[in-house]
Fold:
Amino acid sequence: MQYILRGAWRPYELSERCEEIRLTPIKSKIEVDLRMHVEDDSHNQDVLKPSKLQKQTLSSSVVSFSSPHAVGVLMQNQIHLNPVYAILQLHPSLSDLNDDIPKKELVPKPADANIKHMKDKIALKNSDQSAVNEEASVSLVYHASSSSASRKYKRSMTAEGQNQIEFGLKPSGYLHFLSSGGRGMADRKDSTLSMQLLLGLPLEERLQKWFCQVKQINRFVALKHLAYGYSEVDLLRVLHSYANLVQGLWVCKSSLLYDGDEAMQRDYILLLFSRRKTICYHQLKCIKLDHHLFKCMMNALAYERKTLGNWKFKESTDYSFIKCYPNIAKEQEKSWFDREKLILDFVRKLGKKIPQIARASLTSKRVKAKTAHKADSFTCMAKGTIDVSAGQTMTDETREHLPKALLEIFNDQKVRRLGLVFLVCKYSDF
Structure:
């Protein structure tokens, strides 16, 4: 939180001055109402009471940043780094001045009827829009630094992670380690290529190595530096073979990184990101990937926001490219639309597939069931309680020789049970 009239060494005293915090989803803004220090010596007491400001409203604005940022929490001899995904600046808002300062009564001038009617419609539209914005505001609860919620969040910021940071790195190396999900610098050195080596390769190989080994999400302005010696037309012509357009940015094709089901599942993720900048957890339940592979795949594309239960696309939308090249943007959008049914059908079938372990257990159960059925059948036959199917018929030749066969069985085998008689008749030679 940055306040232009107050330095970092001065506390905000929000717990004492904060009256209300509001979130406006439509505008994506946060507003904080602070109580004014009217009893302070610096406050002008000579101002008329109706004109005094009783509160001050701070309004948020998003700060864009291209390089990764982190917040460090120093405890004893350990520093705990936490990645920063967004920065909000709070500035004094003048929107509430009209509510506290009375308006001067102005004498209305005669106006044309049409102009007056138009002004009334505009005023009505503005009032309706303001009413919608006010209704859409959500009140938030402020937790002081000494509250249990704040202490719990601070403990999560200082919790020890699973990954060990390599010492002796440059500041940029620490930030890369933090923002890349804990991948070591050794992996980065193996995968990162020098620009001198890249510029000596043909454009196709440059793009392929860059997308696969350096960075998966790229802006067109940055790729133009990579295509030194080639025109924008040549770059756009080659880009279609190695990347897809998502949110105005060029993202490496899944077929260059993965094979088979893994590539299709990554395409499903890119399809969702092409529609929205966030993906909820429940939308990824159909993904059937190893946990480590899934994390690596998602960390290269998005930031995980566990509090909100979603993943947010790493880069902000490149509206400049969409504006400069609307035809290419429409072609890429149509390409996603054409592949959408294929991708969704694949994901649905993937969700219906039985995992290998479950399939093996089902097979073993079926084998056991068949074995048990055979054993029960033999037991029933031995006891003479076997069920003879009504569909079986006896030929004339069998019916003619059957009395003689039964007579020999009763005399020689000395058996009387129907099951054993059936077995002897079946396997004997008459």
Remarks:
- Residues 37 and 43 are 7 Å apart (CA to CA).
